[in-house]
Amino acid sequence: MFGKLIEAIFGSKHTRDVQRLTPIVGEINRLGPPLRQLSDEQLRAKTDEFRAAVAEKVGSIRDSVRDLHDRLTAVSGAGAVEGAGAVEGAVAGEVEIDFY
After folding, report:
1. What is the DSSP letter of 96?
2. Collapsing DSSP states into helix, strand and coil, what is residue 91?
3. I need a surface site. Which of 9, 52, 89, 91 has the fewest CB within 10 A?
4. What is the C-alpha to C-alpha distance for residues 90 and 83, in angstroms, rounded to an integer?
5. What predicted TM-score, i.e. pTM, was given to this entire model?
6. What pLDDT was estimated at residue 35?
7. N-term to C-term CA, the chain
């Protein structure tokens, strides 16, 4: 009973997920037709462009994490910083980044 009331007010998880993903699906659908027109070779080149863009973005994020870690270490002194292992792992590329 109470669960149905909450669901009526906030919607089900499924409904919230659909609402959250609808703009992403719309963007994918908008980008699809131009990509379908590409030849296999052009699509391979586009894939390389995408990979380079992602690598550049991840590199800048990694640089920001490294800078924040260095600043945190400087502020807290030369000793170990709580949670620094996770930061160092992220800097070393050992942590998977979830963009969604």
Report:
1. -
2. helix
3. 9
4. 11
5. 0.42
6. 87
7. 32
